[in-house]
Input
Amino acid sequence: MKYYLNHPLKTEPIESGEIKKEDFKEIFDRFPWIEFLQKQLVAIEKEIKCSPSITLENKEGIGIDFSIVGEIDNYEFYICYKRPILRKKKKWFKTIEYLDKNWHSIIPEQNMNDGIEAFNLLFDRDFETLEKKWG
Output
């Protein structure tokens, strides 16, 4: 599984690589969520590249982004669940199905436990539960 640690003022991840499930919790716990949020909040808007976040993605491109947003005294986390899904669209007089390879669900008002749960479900390839909770 690939992971990326994203700094709000950097275009490239500050750390990335392959990771095992048993090593991921330590990385999650030591990520400086509040420190990076503070840096984002005092930055000039055009300097901001992303919200402070951790991204985990498997070989099939299915992934979870877990990010912090808000103010220092009033913040929340959100989960972005990326996966391919079959979608429908109207074309002329009929409906066709197509595969959207990069479908994202963005779910606000999450907490640290939600993030750990989502990452563990991705490691365990439990896509059914991921879809139910964050799809």
